[in-house]
Amino acid sequence: MMAKETLRSWKLWIGVAVLAFLVLIPFLGILGGYLQTLGFLTFLYITLSTAWNILGGYAGQTSFGHATFYGLGAYTTCILALRGVPILLTIPIAGMVASFYGLLWGYPCLRLRGQYFAIATIGVGEATRLLMLNLDDLIKNNHLLKGFLQKGVLTGGATGLMLPTPEDISAYATGFYYGVMVLMFAALWVSWWVKKGKFGLGLFAINMDSDAAETVGVNTTRYKILALMLSAFMVGISGSIYAQYVFYIDPQTVFGFPMSIAMVLMPIIGGIGTLTGPILGAVVYIVVQDRILTANLNLGLIKLSLSTLHLLVYGGLLVLIILFEPKGLLGVHRRLNNWLKKGKIGSLMTTGKV
Amino acid sequence: MSAILLAGLYATMSYGLALIYGVMKIVNLAHAGVMMWGAYVAFVLITQLGINPFLAPLLIVPAFFVFGRLLQRFVVRRIMGAPPISSLLLLFGVWLMMQNISYLVFSGDTKAITTKYTLLTFQWGGISISVNRMFVFIVGILALVALRQFLGHTYMGKAIRSTAQDSDASKLVGINTSRIMEIAFGIGIALASLAGSLMALIFAFDPDFGRSHLLKGFCIVVLGGLESMIGVALGALVLALSEALSVLWLMPAMQDFVSFALLVIVLIVMPGGMKGLVDRFFSK
Amino acid sequence: MSNARKILFAIFVLIISFILTPATGFSQASTTAPKEIILGAALPLTGGQSREGGYVNKAYAMALKEINDAGGIMVKAYGKKIPIKLIIYDDKSDNTTSVQLYEKLVTEDKVNALMGGYGTPLITAHTIVAEKYRVPYVNGGGATGAIYQRGMKYIFCIISSIEKLSFTLMDWIALQQNAGKLKKPLRIALMGENTSHGKEFRQGVLDKSKAAPDRFQVVMDEPFELNMKDADPLLQKVKAANADIYLADARLADYVTIHRRYTEMNLYHSIVSYGPRGPEKAARDALGPASDYIISCNWWNKDIPAAPSKAFADKYQKTYNEPAEWFAATAYEAFRVMAKAIEDAGTLDKTKIRDAMAKIDIKNSLVVGGRIWFEPNGQINNDHLIMQNMPGGKVALIYPKDVATAGPIVPIPKKK
Fold this sequence. Notes:
By secondary structure, chain A is mostly helical. Chain A has helices at 2-28, 34-58, 67-82, 87-109, 114-139, 169-196, 198-208, 210-215, 220-246, 251-255, 257-270, 277-293, 310-324, 328-351; strands at residues 161-162, 248-249.
């Protein structure tokens, strides 16, 4: 009643304050401006995390091959930009290319169950990386496809592709900071919209029991493919943005297995299948990793700095989460909340006030 | 010819994966980590303690069997009922931890084991064959035979097979399924360590070792039909041969691509693997 | 629980972690002398390049200690010597992390200058950060020429490009042809790892061959994937190509795998080379006598008799109880180059340091030829070293003449 109302408005004010903070970061020069870079990466990874969650969390189809979409988005942008296409136009094209690729391999693969699908995605991920690595060599002797090469380069193979850097990089970077923030909010909105709509309901049903879902009339194949394509689109756009921020991509970075793993780790750590779990997971992945793992100054001598333990930390976190709280950090939070609430209710009852 | 030797190597590294999957429907991503640890332990044994490289596995395998059982009992068992993706991720986490421990103890330096057998070859029909690879091949065959014997003719083996087929029914006939699973997991890990300690003789390795082998292992297990050890051996043969042949009309750099493409295709087209195909063929 | 609350929680975590960990930066007043000169680098201490990253880390540490033991770098603007603080982060051999960490070094840690990492993809990516913030950067570990052809002003490198490396090798082979030790034309079997390093190497060989078809004919040219399992198919191709000389570019693990199989197959070529690989102790241990007579072309070797080089080699061996590899030497020297540039500039102003670096001319360095200076694009353009593995685990330096310790054995002897 009254308490609830004040509570709600309190949340609203905090939300506005947080938003204001995020918007003002480029001007506040916190940490010498590093917070802006961190912010950029965090927003980007929140987008990736949320995108993966639509397929992996809502629909329950764990994909270890999402880096293919990231890479395709990045490469599409670079390839087109290097051939004179205005770079902002390449962003939606990148998303569509990624999405289409998702349809291509998703259609046959999504018929597979659970972990078979996961294994297949590993195969697709690595196969795509190898293909992109060798594409130039493969087509340079083929008369039909040779025309795609520009100065002998399409994907650049192992050398990767470089984008020309603009004159005023600082303003450019700030522009991208806001751009990716908008992207993140858009992704979150999409995730929220999917979750509350009929589409999301179908996905959750497929997650719980695919056969049952089929019987009640959910076209599981179509839903799964749509989820994959949507997820791929968002990841593709993210890849495009990444390429434009870093100005250099190569197959190992954007198509590599570690990238796919990152996209799986974040939602799981944060809370799979929820709306804000991926946000939490991405924040943990980027921000906490940066703060804590680099806090130990290694003064150039051979000292044990925390950064050499990062694999242990991730692995350990993963193991702990799977073993004790599969719902990730959000699940832990919820349990804490329940435990606190129980305490309150208990005390209320004993004092006779209900 | 070298493809056949390679097949032996591939098969050895896949048995463990197949066994654990067959019995518990768990995809063991830590398999790569165990192979890597097997290689490092072999490295220490052979270079620091001077143990004969062909005997080193005899020491390594039992140790890892125990490790595997412990791992299953205290870690894996807890998520037996959970959706299969949990075990996948859990073991992946274990793999990451194993990698980090290796980095801490051995640093990221590439290590290699050289023994007096390393470059030894013998001639056979005009082709020179590496002694080490031949040894691995022979072990691969022996392991296959031993596994078949074990699974087919011993009480433990049959218990494992029945648990794999139907764990509830097995419980009904008095089999202690949880203990069986523990043992099966232990054997699977032991097999992985065997593969690792053998491969250490042939390849240079670092903490990241095993990743690409793991992925090929998947291909082979899927090719072979997930149910039988002979299937695994055959799958290994098919993969090795197709890789070797593909060099003729595809760039050598795309060899790995072949195995991944094969993995995806086989998953889609032949979920029963080759053995399933053969079975269907014979039952007509 | 509402969504706003969850987002709050996330921000809460964020803020708490900021508060709990102290800022690693150091604000400097502009008139009084700063307490330290801050240098920073992100190195691959884990991941695929961790082996080399480890050496670079140790080399930097050694150089740091040397300079600080002498009081630091003399900065004229403050009239005194100021010690260096070196910040090292681990970029996990990952491009995104490397870029992020260099951003951190510049913005949060407020370094005065940046030291380089190791590994072409990593360097290609993170040098953009140095240029973006106009912070001088020098490295001894990213040789690929393409990195320095992007019109950047703040990026410097004290090792010559890989393209030049393959040119040097080819030119040396041409010298052997002139001396009558090898015939004309030579058929070349060429292969390289499928990375920019390998590609540049192969391209260099191909370019030289095209320019002199009477001397060189490339009869086989293949890239291969890293972490090879079975070198047999590739080497069967080599065998079938019936070449006279065999040139490859591979990193340590593949070099061992390939050359083991090469030896098992009893292949023979007048010249065998794995590009910069060859004399590494790990490889010689792994290959035994099979590694004898392999020719390698490199940026430094511990057996160079010149005094500065020997001084470094001995000191490294004593400090870390292992022989130094070339990237350790170039990293060490890069650090000292940076120190000299700061000293020459006389101030901690980044642009002035950069200008001093561009004009630098060091005469008694440990690099081949002894002299460090930079072309306009920021990369050095000195000679490479060619060496040959000799029996008994020894290494002979065979080119250039002023550092040669022995004559080459060409063509290499056949095995019995």
